[in-house]
Design goal:
Length: about 290
């Protein structure tokens, strides 16, 4: 039997997994039904609530539980206390030969503040769309209880064989110790997929009240049906108020249509959100 064509095997958008309870350094593990092989599982964050005086740390990852189950994990370390988090993830079939994904690390495969070139494992026949987001980070602020945690990842200069990714701390008051970035490259001719990046700096974004942003995006090409949307954090600037890091991203199901979506980015009661951004993939059925 021949393998399904790439066009007939789109990635599956998995529902966000919630984690966190008492605010302790912890590894939160949630077991779900999903085949471990042959699949790739890009994962990112839609919500993070942590406590630490200087550095905030978190890592999202997926590991095998059995042949038919995987474990979705959120992990903290050091003095960081995890209050809660939500991870969004994709299930990518191995049959989908053109849907490419990978992880780049700082320090390691990329630098800080300057573009780094990432090669695709397999060249595309035409220039793809590439998005990236944070799946792990350790970032510190220079002012205890008063500084700002800042981190941003972006992609540019996409060709059929590679692209560039940039990780930036934005200002000297924020120090990136380490980070892991997930990237996904999507063929430009997929009629059932839309992807892109939304930020609080985009035109038309409204700050309804301090730290509460809402915006909208129109897909470049309308989809044939209402899609399911994957989204994950790629930029944040959060005011450190008494050691609280508090951020929520949301794309409500009722705010998604075949034409586009409406999103919100909100800082919690214990910290102020100054800026944020996220990458998204919208997947529709034919």
């Amino acid at each position: 039997m021949s393998n399904p064509t790439a066009e007939s095997v789109p990635p599956t958008v998995r529902a966000p997994i919630l984690a966190g309870d008492k605010g302790l350094p912890q590894l939160s593990r949630t077991v779900v039904n999903a085949p471990w092989y042959p699949r790739a599982y890009p994962i990112g964050f839609t919500s993070i609530h942590e406590e630490d005086d200087r550095n905030v740390r978190i890592k999202g990852f997926i590991e095998s539980e059995s042949e038919s189950k995987v474990c979705v994990c959120s992990d903290t370390c050091g003095t960081t206390l995890l209050k809660s988090s939500a991870t969004s993830w994709l299930e990518v079939p191995a049959d989908d030969r053109d849907f490419q994904t990978g992880i780049c690390k700082y320090p390691g495969s990329i630098g800080l503040g300057t573009p780094s070139t990432i090669a695709f494992p397999k060249a595309f026949s035409s220039t793809p769309t590439v998005i990236a987001w944070l799946t792990s980070f350790d970032v510190g602020t220079s002012a205890s209880g008063r500084g700002v945690w800042r981190m941003k990842v972006s992609t540019s200069t996409v060709t059929t064989t590679n692209f560039t990714v940039t990780l930036d701390g934005l200002k000297p008051d924020s120090t990136i110790v380490n980070a892991e970035i997930v990237w996904v490259a999507i063929p430009s001719d997929r009629s059932n997929l839309a992807s892109g990046t939304c930020t609080t700096a985009d035109d038309g974004v409204n700050e309804m009240q301090p730290g509460h942003f809402t915006g909208a995006v129109t897909f470049a090409t309308p989809l044939k049906s209402t899609p399911t949307v994957f989204f994950a954090l790629n930029w944040f600037e959060v005011q450190n108020t008494d050691g609280k890091f508090d951020l929520d991203l949301a794309v409500p199901e009722f705010a998604v249509t075949p034409l586009g979506l409406v999103w919100t980015a909100i800082g919690g009661n214990e910290s102020q959100l100054l800026a944020a951004g996220f990458s998204f993939i919208a997947v529709s059925t034919y």
